[in-house]
Amino acid sequence: MTSVNHSFIEEIKSDHKGTLEKFYNEQKSGFMSWARSRFDCDQDTIVDVFQDAIVTLYHNIKEGKITGFETTPGAYLFGIARNLMLKRNLKDRRTTLTDDMSRETGEQLDYNIFDRIEDDHRRHLIAEGFRKLKDSCRDILTLFYYHNYSMESIMNRLEYGSVDTVKSRKNQCMNKLKQIIQSN
Questions:
Q1: Average pLDDT over the chain, rounded to an integer
Q2: What is the mean pLDDT of residues 165-184?
Q3: What is the pLDDT averaged over residues 146-164?
Q4: Where along the chain do the CATH 1.10.10 domains lie?
Q5: CA distance readout (Å), 34 to 113, 115, 124, 173
Q6: Sequential DSSP letters for the chain
Q7: Distance (Å, rounded) from C-alpha 44 to C-alpha 21?
Q8: Would the pLDDT of 124 be above 50?
Q9: What are phi and psi for residue 39, nearest 5 degrees?
Q10: Is the pLDDT of residue 107 over 60?
């Protein structure tokens, strides 16, 4: 985490005057342009989503859910906003992604940066959730997903009684991780 990111978090936590307002103003026009090019919805909806994302970012910092950013606060904000926009899309079906429309019209839109922002936000949520798991869950999930251990190898390494116990425990741990991520 850079010192700029750290100072941003500390200023928000201490209710430093102007920090959130300055951040809001710096991010708004870029978000508005991005959202208009990516989603088919009205200006008021885009503004509402942006404001909801700012509020979510603020509350996540104040509640200690965010301790740092893997890239920038702006990238994190765009990830939140994109997820809110997609949730709104699923909820009311008024908003549609325009990626397919751009292919039809022959336009080549570059969304790599926004995909990276979304991936960064998702990785951040997973990493935060993973840190909140008990050691036993982190061990099982690390061995299975990161080191590609078989259930039998995990059973032997962590001294479980059976492969079925390991499978059951891994599923419980994954469900707990999903629950933690969804609560954030």
A1: 80
A2: 91
A3: 93
A4: 133-184
A5: 11, 12, 22, 37
A6: --HHHHHHHHHHHTT-TTHHHHHHHHHHHHHHHHHHHHB---HHHHHHHHHHHHHHHHHHHHTTS-S--SS-HHHHHHHHHHHHHHHHHHHHS---B-HHHHHHHT-----HHHHHHHHHHHHHHHHHHHHHS-HHHHHHHIIIIIS---HHHHHHHHT-S-HHHHHHHHHHHHHHHHHHHHH-
A7: 19
A8: yes
A9: -125, 145
A10: no
Measured between alpha carbons, how far is 181 from 184 in angstroms, rounded to an integer? Answer: 5
Both tokens of 73, joined, read: 């606060």
With contact defined as beta carbons under 8 Å apart, do 57 and 79 qualify? Answer: no
d(CA 116, CA 74): 12
Of 1.10.10, 3.30.450, 3.40.50, 3.40.630, the CATH number of 133-184 is 1.10.10
pLDDT for 102: 44
